[in-house]
Specification:
about 325 residues, alpha/beta, Rossmann fold, Helicase, Ruva Protein, domain 3, 3 domains, two-stranded antiparallel sheet, sequence-specific DNA binding, Sigma_54_int_dom_ATP-bd_2, AAA+_ATPase, Sigma-54-dependent Fis family transcriptional regulator, P-loop_NTPase
Length: about 325
């Protein structure tokens, strides 16, 4: 067997093993480029190297952070998540570093911050770019000295933990514009994992759908086996601005409401990317009848007007397609 075939088989086996591990955490991908990147990430999982995870909202950054922690030597200790973007500037410092009783008006008791609670484990700071420059400076000092003091406190608390951060912003651009400290960026960016948006991973939509179908079939006592060819085509054409989080909600809703064993287009609360792109005023809400007609025209265009191929792609008979075309007054 040629060497390149042997190497390819070895890579496929490694990817399969990695996919199985990730699936246990609900992270599903068949994208070769992403799997190559995650395979590289696997090498630093057993270490304490800081990891910066980038990607749009809903791409699974929090799942990947937990995966890193649960497969590291610190897995039996706390994994503490703090979404910086959800906190007001007035309480972020207290939530990060803690405070002592009486340090400010509402501090009625001592409070352990996220860093202290993550002792010997991992802290995951989501939306790290939302920190203001003052707190960025304090965070850098903590990471370099591995020591914190609670607000209003004098006692130094030495830290032993791993830090993972994430952002949905272009952090390098923020560094260039002076909105994020370059020295802190270098400290957090010992290694980076970028999660591409779902629209760039169309091959992942089917497996992710099936994963969520399995979950919600059990939750709602349904027996939906799959998604129709036409519905899958629609989903692969859609831009998924909310990424996997949005796809999960679409499948959850469709599973709960559908009375079929296979999900059809009308079960899905989404619209065609091509429709949105060609109709700037379209706000995502249209009558189902209009959407069906637009999608039929789109499908016919894809197959150069060939009704037999169009019917096969839509998972319907050719006579049924003809009746639908007549109903919409779509000419030959």
């Amino acid at each position: 067997m040629p060497i390149y075939h042997m190497e390819n088989e070895k890579m496929l086996k490694r990817h399969q093993l990695l996919q199985n591990k990730l699936r246990q955490f609900g992270f599903i991908t068949q994208n070769a480029a992403l799997l190559n990147q995650l395979e590289m990430m696997e090498r630093i999982v057993p270490t304490d190297i800081s990891v910066l995870i980038t990607g749009e909202s809903g791409t699974g950054k929090n799942i990947l952070a937990e995966y890193i922690h649960k497969n590291s030597p610190r897995k039996n200790n706390n994994f503490i998540t703090l979404d910086v973007g959800c906190l007001s500037p007035q309480i972020i410092e207290s939530e990060l570093f803690g405070h002592v009783k009486g340090s400010f008006t509402s501090a009625v008791s001592d409070h352990k911050g996220a860093f202290e609670r993550a002792q010997n484990g991992t802290i995951f700071l989501d939306e790290i770019t939302e920190l203001d420059l003052n707190l960025q400076k304090k965070l850098l000092r903590v990471l370099e000295d591995k020591v914190i003091r609670r607000l209003g406190g004098e006692r130094e608390i030495r830290l032993d933990l791993r830090i993972i951060t994430a952002t949905n912003k272009d952090i390098r651009q923020l560094v260039k514009s002076g909105k994020f400290r370059q020295d802190l960026y270098y400290r957090l960016n010992e290694t980076t994992v970028h999660l591409p948006p779902l629209r760039e991973r169309p091959e992942d939509i089917g497996p992710i759908c099936q994963f969520f179908l399995d979950i919600y079939n059990k939750q709602y006592a349904k027996k939906i086996s799959s998604v129709s060819t036409a519905a899958m085509s629609l989903m692969q054409d859609y831009s998924w601005p909310g990424n996997i989080r949005e796809l999960r909600n679409v499948i959850k809703s469709a599973t709960a409401l559908s009375k079929r064993e296979v999900l059809w287009i009308e079960d899905l609360n989404i619209f065609s990317k091509s429709t949105a792109d060609t109709n700037p005023q379209f706000n995502g809400i249209k009558p189902l009848d209009t959407l069906e007609k637009e999608y039929l025209l789109y499908a016919l265009k894809i197959f150069d007007g060939n009704k037999t191929k169009t019917a096969q792609a839509l998972d319907i008979s050719r006579p049924r397609l003809q009746r639908i075309l007549e109903r919409h007054k779509i000419a030959e």
